[in-house]
Here is the input.
Amino acid sequence: MSLRRRVLTGMLTNATNPKGIVFMVAVLPQFMTDTRPLWSQLLVMAVTLIAADTVVMTGYAASASALRRWMRSERARRNQNRVFGGLLMLVGTGLFFVKRGGQHAA
Here is the structure.
């Protein structure tokens, strides 16, 4: 796949992500002001979000690339399944003992 196609696919995926849309609607209006032009505020926010997202996603990609050679073996997959399976069981056990609000122990 060409670089242009990958970039367009990534932008479309990110633009239609419901979590991203909720974030924009919930967080960004708090930083808007009536004293400055709307277009300049949106431009600053867009540049900031693109820069932060680029740094974070590049970090994820570099980490995944570095870990890829270690995760290819069957032993690594088995260990990964054991670690994350154990963590999920611990979370499930912890949730079992959580008391909900409004329920009182007798």
